[in-house]
Write a structure and sequence with these properties.
The protein has 222 residues and is an alpha+beta fold. It contains 8 helices and 13 strands.
């Protein structure tokens, strides 16, 4: 009996954990966000338009495409296809949602600067779909770009990233055009004296998509 009571209390605490943070830990980041809600591509299936909403005030999610919703435990169970006990183990290291009073007295951080969280091979469906909409094949983009997760003004985002020679990033997704410091050019060296100069990431990718293997050095200027 004592064991059942402990499990119940764990579930009650876990329901207060942030859905946005749980989604970030699972590799899902919002396509757009406001003060009251965040919108995602559904974590349950491939889709081209966002249909998955998280209410920040209620800390609840709803998938408009499937007509289902719930709390953070329901979400983890469905995404990971696991029992409740395993979902609780997954959530135990996440911080709880913050109350308004906690936010009011929390010392503000410098959130106007982009902070790079993770860099990996392009694989997110949203990034692949955006590349396709711009006429760029995944194989072409993967030669030069990476999938970058970052924070900006307290929110998490993902983007297609192209790193410059000073290790800053140009960041693009369907909704956002951004960049991290320091700003600089991206120079792709192929060992040739001829040079192509492009204005940005997608100009470079478009030339490579159309021209194939060019025996030229290329510089993207931002």
């Amino acid at each position: 009996m004592k064991k059942e009571r402990t499990h119940k209390l764990s579930c009650e605490r876990a329901r207060a954990f942030s859905i946005e943070r749980a989604l970030a830990k699972l590799g899902h980041f919002p396509a757009r966000t406001t003060e009251k809600e965040a919108w995602y591509l559904s974590p349950f299936r491939p889709e081209a338009q966002v249909s998955f909403k998280v209410s920040k005030r209620l800390n609840r999610w709803y998938d408009h495409g499937a007509g289902i919703g719930g709390n953070v435990i329901d979400l983890v169970v469905r995404i990971k296809e696991c029992p409740v006990g395993e979902a609780l183990d997954f959530l135990k290291d996440l911080p709880s949602s913050f109350s308004f009073q906690q936010q009011l007295f929390k010392k503000p951080e410098n959130t106007d600067c982009i902070k790079i969280i993770n860099v990996q091979t392009l694989h997110h469906f949203g990034a692949i779909d955006y590349l396709a909409s711009r006429g760029i094949r995944l194989g072409t983009a993967r030669k030069f770009c990476r999938e970058v997760t970052y924070t900006f003004r307290g929110r998490h985002y993902f983007a297609i990233g192209l790193q410059n020679i000073s290790e800053g990033w140009e960041l693009r997704n369907k909704s956002i055009k951004n960049s991290s410091s320091p700003k600089d050019v991206t120079h792709i060296k192929n060992g040739h004296s001829k040079l192509i100069v492009t204005e940005g990431m997608f100009d470079l990718l478009s030339i490579m998509e159309i021209g194939g293997k060019l025996d030229l050095d290329m510089t993207s200027w931002y």
